[in-house]
Write a structure and sequence with these properties.
single chain, about 180 residues, alpha/beta, Rossmann fold, seven-stranded mixed β-sheet, 6 helices, about 40% helix, about 20% strand
């Protein structure tokens, strides 16, 4: 069983903001795999299905970004999911718009949702896909909660598609091959 977790903030106010890259990737992956992410459990929205004969869960915590770890810990604990079967998808200010970066483990890099997951799982040893949103020229909070500019939108749309393809490649082959292809 693979657990794909898209990080973001719930509600209309935050839709399509830079901080919701994880939600956008999860939504596109769900659409392409015909998995409905609509069951309210574990402080989030969950969908279950199959992709290439692999059991898949797609999860979007609704705890707000900075408390994502609580929801992730609950679902991981309940389903007894191994850390190796988790992929967390989130935004990353250190990457320019249009870029993605895959890592098998590591620090949060200042991403507060990732940091909260690390604290709640007691480990940095889970896969992550970071979607670039670029460096802010002004206040970081206003920046991540803002919507991409017209110039950024096509770049970010491509990065979201690439992240979905990276998830598919991971399921098709493995995460190392996906890293080699997309990093």
């Amino acid at each position: 069983m693979k657990l794909i977790v898209g990080l973001g903030n719930p509600g209309k106010k935050y839709e399509k903001t830079r901080h919701n890259m994880g939600f956008m990737v999860a939504d596109l992956f769900a659409d392409e795999t015909a998995i409905d992410v609509d069951k309210e459990v574990f402080h989030g929205l969950l969908g279950r299905g199959k992709f290439l004969d692999e059991d898949i869960m797609i999860f979007k915590p609704t705890t707000y970004m900075n408390l994502s770890g609580t929801a992730v810990r609950e679902i991981v604990s309940y389903f007894k999911i191994e850390l190796d079967d988790i992929i967390i998808v989130c935004d990353d200010m250190a990457l320019e718009p249009g870029k993605i970066r895959l890592r098998t483990k590591g620090s949060s890099g200042g991403q507060k949702g990732l940091q909260n997951i690390i604290e709640n799982l007691g480990s940095e040893d889970f896969k992550r896909i970071r979607v670039g949103i670029g460096e802010p020229e002004f206040d970081a909070i206003d920046y991540v909660l803002g919507k991409p500019t017209e110039d950024e939108r096509p770049l970010i749309a491509q990065a979201i598609e690439d992240a979905v393809e990276a998830i598919k490649e991971t399921i098709r082959t493995d995460f190392t091959r996906a890293m080699n292809r997309f990093n």
